[in-house]
Amino acid sequence: KSANPQWREQFDFHYFSDRKDMLDIEVWRKDNRKHEELLGTCHVDIAALPAKQTNCLELPLEKHPGSLLMLIAVAPCSGVSISDLCVCPLGDLSERQQIAQRYCIKNSFRDMKDIGFLQVKVLKAVDLMAADFSGKSDPFCVLELGNDMLQTHTVYKNLNPEWNKVFTFPIKDIHDVLEVTVFDEDGDKPPDFLGKVAIPLLSV
């Protein structure tokens, strides 16, 4: 019940500079659990923003009254990676020993923000639901940790896809939950939901 809401949330998107990406933002209102109404949209050309600084933007909502105030920073990301199984980070024994030393008890107060990181190997899915009329799906997998998100490539026409990718996330809150969701790619339409699992970090 506010015309001037404040959210104060941070989202991290992993942007690769060889791509020309637009950040699409939608503002919605909820009447109840079933009814939602679009209050407006706006778009930001990421490539046009100055790098290594925080940009304060007031974005008018298209075709609707109101505006959205955002801070957007384009900066080199650290601790986040996507790799193939054959070049998996942490696969080298000496690297694992360095990490064990970095997080040993005597070094635990050296950097209070460096809690650690999570490495996830997404191997495959089995017996997915068929989302297409052909009896197949075009599945891809999205991993979310807090407000951090990474995803696999799409495997087309397959109910038993193999991704064989390794994802590395920095951990910002040990109470976060890793959410792994499988979607069916559907061209220009929003992807179809195929399933989800949630793994609390404290259970790992």
Automatic annotation (TrEMBL):
Coiled-coil features, chain-numbered ranges: none
GO molecular function, one term: calcium ion binding
Annotated membrane topology: Multi-pass membrane protein
Keyword Ribonucleoprotein assigned: no
GO cellular component terms attached to this protein's record: synaptic vesicle membrane
The C2 domain, residue ranges: 1-59, 93-204
An example Gene Ontology biological process: regulation of neurotransmitter secretion
InterPro entries named in the record: C2_dom (IPR000008), C2_domain_sf (IPR035892)
Statement: the UniProt record of this protein carries the keyword Repeat: yes
Keywords: Calcium, Membrane, Metal-binding, Repeat, Transmembrane, Transmembrane helix
Gene3D superfamilies listed in its UniProt record: C2 domain
Subcellular location: Membrane
Record family assignment: Belongs to the MCTP family.
Protein name in the entry: MCTP2 protein
Gene this protein is translated from: Mctp2
